[in-house]
Design a protein that fits this description.
- It is a single chain.
- The protein has about 500 residues and is of the alpha+beta class.
- About 25% of the residues lie in helices and about 20% in strands.
- The strands form four sheets. A six-stranded mixed beta sheet has the order 14-13-16-15-17-18, sandwiched between helices. It has a five-stranded antiparallel beta sheet with strand order 6-5-4-3-7, with no helix packed on it. A five-stranded antiparallel beta sheet has the order 11-10-9-8-12, covered by helices on one side.
- It is elongated and about 115 Å long.
Length: about 500
């Protein structure tokens, strides 16, 4: 090649610029492509960055590796929205099956559409519905209210009702029974409880009794879709008895101390927070429903009695932690949560290590309180009677150590008295006079100095038929209450 030549063709067919010409070419190309229309060649279609890529689709759909039908959509309650068939909008149903996905062109772009087989309510059959027309609803679930203008309702637990599709508002029921309308964004899902099936079938009990610790039993209750019981530390109950010995409610001598109740309410916690190895004691109180009365509605004398016993038992079981399950504190929230706790009541009693009865005439007339005692026999738990004039016993330190011995004292019984039989009346209505007692024997002891006993022997329970006529009382049509035959005859004669 010669110096005068700008470039030469090489033997391999490539074209090479002469020495010194590369810089000249760079200078000529500098500035091309700037401004309006400058630097554009007539023989080119445009810059490489502007060319359409033909090796890949224009809108490549990324695969949804995290799509979980079984966990997110299977058997979930949904509401149909934004359908062209307006008559179906607002219809409730449940997702039964995933029919798959297909790619369709929408406005010239590829879009992936998923379809589900939905079983509609009100006898409307099953239909294939797109994912975009399904709105997952929380009807029947417990939700926590958030972001409301009424700030006093924020963080409260409510029961979620039906969804009004026209306004996209839930009808929720708060704990005091009021109904309010909230947006879906103001309702945070908490749990969906089982409020119809009572726990107690054989398979459930076997798995529950095989649980080796309190933590495992609490996990089993949660797995069965029941609310986890709330518990109270023994130290909190003891502090109530020491710091609030008198009720200050005017005109209600037996009303709980309001300030003491507030302090006690702050100490209530979930059973999941109880330390390992906790001794959990169930306290049976007279009441008209299963999860009742509320802490503020409990009698002051009963709280004092529980507090004195809690102080003594915490010392006796030390250093083992002691917690109490009180029916009115065991669950909170809307009616659905309380109904679910009622269904789980056999498991709640089974979860505890001991059952203590607050003896009184009111307790003998309460069907729910007597059911507690029957469940204690069924669960093979030690049953203790806490008398009305309860005074904590005084233990001698040397005598207690010699009798029980260090670590064994943590598993000691809660009474120094021998066992004796206990009779439980058969359940009757609260408004009806109680029939004579029927036999139901369970461990019990006597003694003024403390809680009357239970031991390791288990009682045998016999509950007679409600229809047996051995009591001498009859239920006759037209009579307002249980009456003897003589009283009924005198009424007819008048």
């Amino acid at each position: 090649r010669t110096a005068e030549m700008d470039a030469v063709w090489l033997e391999d067919g490539s074209f090479e610029a002469a020495p010194g010409e590369i810089k000249k070419l760079k200078g000529k190309l500098k500035g091309k492509g700037k401004g309006k229309g400058k630097g554009k060649g007539k023989d080119k279609d445009g810059p490489d960055a502007k060319k359409q890529r033909t090796d890949e689709p224009e809108d490549k759909e990324e695969e949804d590796d995290d799509f979980d039908f079984e966990g997110e959509w299977k058997d979930k309650l949904i509401c149909l929205v934004h359908l062209k068939a307006a008559s179906l909008n607002g219809t409730m149903g449940s997702v039964k099956e995933y029919l798959g996905a297909e790619d369709v062109l929408v406005d010239g772009k590829r879009k992936r559409v998923r379809r589900f087989l939905v079983a509609l309510q009100d006898g409307k059959g099953e239909k294939s519905i797109k994912l975009e027309n399904l709105f997952k609803v929380m009807t029947g679930s417990c939700v926590k209210l958030r972001g409301l203008d009424a700030s006093e309702l924020n963080d409260s637990i409510a029961e979620c009702g039906k969804l009004d599709v026209a306004t996209m508002r839930y009808d929720v029921t708060i704990s005091d029974g009021r109904h309010i309308k909230v947006k879906p964004s103001n309702a945070e899902f908490v749990a969906r409880y089982e409020a119809e099936k009572v726990a107690g079938d054989r398979s459930t009990l076997e798995s529950f009794r095989n649980a080796s610790s309190l933590k495992d039993r609490v996990a089993a209750i949660e797995e069965l879709s029941y609310p986890i019981p709330q518990v109270v530390p023994a130290s909190a109950l003891a502090d109530y008895a020491k710091k609030f010995p008198k009720s200050v409610v005017i005109g209600r001598a037996n009303a709980a101390n309001p300030k003491g109740v507030q302090v006690l309410a702050h100490e209530i916690c979930s059973a999941t927070h109880a330390p390992p190895g906790t001794r959990l004691i169930f306290v049976s109180v007279p009441r008209g429903s299963c999860v009742a009365p509320a802490l503020a509605d409990m009698r002051h004398d009963e709280l004092l009695r529980i507090g004195k016993f809690a102080e003594w038992v915490s010392k006796r079981c030390a250093p083992r932690p002691v917690y109490f399950v009180i029916p009115g504190v065991a669950a909170k929230g809307p009616p659905s949560a309380l109904n679910a706790a009622t269904c789980a009541w056999p498991l709640v009693v089974e979860m505890c290590t001991d059952v203590v009865v607050l003896e009184s005439d009111r307790w003998r007339k309460s069907p729910w309180a007597r059911l507690d005692a029957l469940l204690a026999v069924w669960a093979r738990r030690s049953l203790y009677i806490l008398p009305e004039n309860y005074t904590p016993p005084i233990e001698m330190g040397d005598a207690g150590a010699g009798a029980s011995g260090g670590d064994e004292n943590k598993e000691a019984l809660l009474s120094f008295r021998p066992e004796e039989p206990m009779t439980i009346d058969r359940p009757v209505d609260v408004a009806v006079a109680a029939p004579p007692r029927q036999p139901c024997r369970t461990p019990r002891g006597t003694g003024r100095e403390g809680c009357r006993g239970g031991g390791q022997q288990r009682g045998h329970c016999e509950v007679p038929d409600a229809g047996r006529a051995e009591t001498g009382l009859r239920r006759r049509p037209g009579l307002a209450s249980w009456q003897t035959d003589g009283a009924a005859a005198r009424k007819r004669k008048k």
